[in-house]
Specification:
single chain; 290 residues; alpha/beta; seven-stranded mixed beta sheet; five-stranded mixed beta sheet
Length: 290
Amino acid sequence: MVKIGERVFVETGFREGNVGLIKFRDEAILVDFPPSPEEAERWLRELEDLSPGPFRYLVVTDCHPLRLLGLQKISIPAVAHYNLREELIGAKSYFRLIFRECYQKYYDGEPPESFEAFFPTLSFKGSATFHRGKDTVKLLAAEGPTPASVVVYLPGDKTLFAGALVVRGVHPDLRLAVSARWIRNLKRLKSLPIEVVIPGQGEPCGPEAFDEMINYLSAVRSAVKEFYQAGKGRTDIFRLVNNFLPLWPYPPEQEEEIRNILRIGLARIYDEIRAEETRSSSAPSAGASG
């Protein structure tokens, strides 16, 4: 458990990512919730000691299944990006495959066919602000890791819960990524007065983490773009996995899992680059006339 200032607490010891608590005088806001039933029970026990009052909201920082599964264990009103509901209503086959994989990691039986149980209580598009006395909490839409990613900004504390926009010491999960927007939003967040960044995984750090993520994502996009422009197909993209596998440490027993995440993530970026290049080539030139 890490304490930041007087009212921010972060549990960094869970396998699938960090979760947090923002305390006010007589209530609290949670940021994400563990998908593992065992870790969920542990976090609830920790929260009993930390929180002086009821939990007003749970902020869900994106639509990745690992951010959704914990919602089965609690009845706190969930706040999320508007796109989270839209992504669940129109869930594509690749999302369902990732959801199944994540579900079966922690639960027995078949995953639900409908995702209504994971719809947020409240949603927003651009930003939302909560005022608690003199305290302010801002939720900012920041698509990138998923189309429904958000960050939680405490301007008075100069602290940012970055969700999966920033991860440290692990491979970023690109399987639901919109990488161009991810980079743009990282650059936008760099302009805010921030002293402490709480990543989706890894220990709290400074704003230098923004540049680390921008550099990583830019390298991935550059490699995939070069691959695409050389005329190589989507099924060949897996050749790039070994280029990126050594960049972050991982337990040896998780190598195949990490390779699979990288393979699917690189294919996702390939599709994004291909769509960008197609739009660019079909756009009329500056001197064209109708």
